[in-house]
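ingest -> validate -> predict -> emit
validate: passed (alphabet ok, no gaps, 231 aa)
predict: started
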Amino acid sequence: MLSVEAIDLYYGASHTLRRVSLTAKKGEVTCILGRNGVGKTSLLRAIFGVQPIRSGRIRWENQLLNDLPPHRRARTRLALVPQGREIFPRLTVLENLETGFAPLPHNERTIPDEIFTLFPVLKEMLHRRGGDLSGGQQQQLAIGRALVTRPRLLILDEPTEGIQPSIIKDIGRAISYLRSQGNIAIVLVEQYLDFACELGDSFAVMDRGVVKYACDRSNLDPGEISRQMAL
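emit:
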């Protein structure tokens, strides 16, 4: 389980995250919602060690991550699908997938077949350059690259942004499949409320660096979440 415990994060004198707490369990999708600029990406940067926290604790599978650099956190099977995808446009699809080998021991440096089952277009375009793919196909490639690392915690930062509806459905089916395996905790950062409500098991709405509203599927009220996001 991921446990973020009352963390504070600063950029210089700017207090960006204020005692933020969050948990994400294996076999569940935890949704982080909110408008642009409310601290969602800063929270992800804290989890991955890209930006140090001032106080609080971040634990993953009972290991304290606070002092681990990003590359060491990746080796604990954390994987991020970043906003904007950030694939390598001049590398082929295959080469992009192989960049996921970096945190893996040598005996695990293979591409799992399930990636091509989830996203068949990647197999069809294996030797095409990443920059030749559509935006939606690049998003599938970014998710596939993360899955190459065999993550136990998968974080997706706004995976539906700028993506055509048919591929949003493919991504939703992939997330549902991964959750059903029961061995991955999934954190979904989203602004597309319908997508989040369809997939989520628990929900946290952020504003101005705090979690101001939280609920789980048993008491999910999309109208209230929408209201909280708009305030």
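The chain has a mean pLDDT of 95.
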